[in-house]
Amino acid sequence: MHFLTKKMMEMKLKNNSIGSWFIVIAISSLFIGLIFGALGGIQYIFPNFLKENLSFQKMRPLHVYLVINWIFCAAAGAIYIYIPDVTGKKLFSNTLAKIHVALQLIIVVIVVTGFFFGVFGGREYFEFPPYVILLIIAAWILFMINFFTTVKPSFNNVPVYIWSWSTGLIFFLITVTEAQLWLLPFFNNNIIRDVTVQWKAMGSMVGSWNMLVYGTAMFVIEKATGDTTINRTPKAFFFYFLGLTNLMFNWGHHTYIVPSSELVKTISYAISMTELLILANIIYSFRKTYLKTNPHKHFLSFRILTYAEVWILLNLTLSLVISVPAINLYTHGTHITVAHAMGATIGINTMLLLASFAFIADDITVDGKFFNRNFNWGFMTLNISLLVFWLSLVGMGICKIAATQQKNGFYEIMDKLLPYFKVFTVSGAFVVVGLLMVVIPYFKLFVRSLFAKKEI
Amino acid sequence: MNKLLIFAVLFISYVSYSSWVYTKGTNRASEMTPNQQLGKQLYQEYNCQSCHQIFGLGGYLGPELTTVISDKTRGELYAKTIMENGAIRMPNFHFSPDKISAILDYLKYVDANAFSYKKNDGNEIKK
Fold it and tell me: Can you list the domains of chain B with their CATH numbers?
């Protein structure tokens, strides 16, 4: 078999396939989530499309949950695979890791089935019933036990990506718990408190998954350059702590319109969206180092990281613009916010995860011919269509602002936005095609790695 | 400087700030009545936020609902009619009159506490 090598077999034995399982779940989630996203886009143009059987009320949570699951599972899979490299030892407990995989699968099945049958908890981004959170927390704690017991970090001496992963793990647990405070009457019966805390939890939760994803990118950068000092410099830690500060305090830029204390808005505006700037700086440093060292090894990871850098710059610009309160007053509640979310999740997080996959694939394939012309076409289709998709969302937002200023009613605004919806839906379909062309080879690779022993 | 110390300082600041946000930072709204609580529960059970926004939270396929009651171009009757019959993009959920009443009550509560929206619209601040 082309893919099955001795090295790959070794990887399988070393990592017990846990990482591969997570990546297979992640790519499956992405695939199904993208399909629901594309169908949801069609509902913007044809309102009666699946209106009675699979309305947007179900379509959106299916899309949102599955694509968030993609990010978390892909990051978890990469971390499981990297842990032996980082520590030089086996995972603390394969049994815990297998239970983690099993729980993750059970959660996906419960959530997706529930959505199909209209069982909702009805919270933004966490639209499943609250009892599912208990399973999510249980699974996460298993992950944390395995990570911290295997890595046993001596925090003053470890590279920055260990800090990044540790922070991501801890803060996901904190924020996922915080997001359930609405179950207490003290929070639930006060709309301003409820909404503010929900924005706070979700804003910081995005920061937590960014920490996991950025950590994998930093690890790849270190391994690709062979420069083990790059993640231990004062500069690297300065940016890490700045990122952590953002995770903790910058969520308030979502709440300018919520009548909470003015101090919340002032603090978040002051800290602002520097998190993306942090990563841009790290990747920029990486490129300089990379070009000086080894321009051919891990070429694909480098190429994908370069595209991620472009997306960081685009999204950073948009973030800074919409963080200005006087501008946010108009952009809030428009698709410009969606453009920011899509740029961050597809343009940045997904690109970084793909770079991570490319790095892993380099280690488990022999001849470097794994990535064929289809992959290149897919990658270019993904980036070009994502740019059109992103611009259509920004255009939609600007058009909505103009129509709102003219005191147009909702249906009038929706009519004016129709041309943008068409561009958004068609380009979104191409994003799906491009992304699938890119991830399907990885999917095949990781599925085969699961059964490598048997086949060999 | 010791990295753990920096982390500890940041974490303590985060915990303190969170405590303040949970209490004094968000104590402006009035408390919900039981019927308004029921309305909120229904709003969540039917996953209304998938298409509608309240204070920026939610999707964009349907109209923003924070000030739907006081909005001169929409209002309570508009909201009630849509809930009774559905709309172009919204399925008819066949809400019972009690459910519609509870959801309307919840939307009135949200509207009454949307101080920042009223200020931006140039209308009178209710509280």
Answer: 34-121 (1.10.760.10)
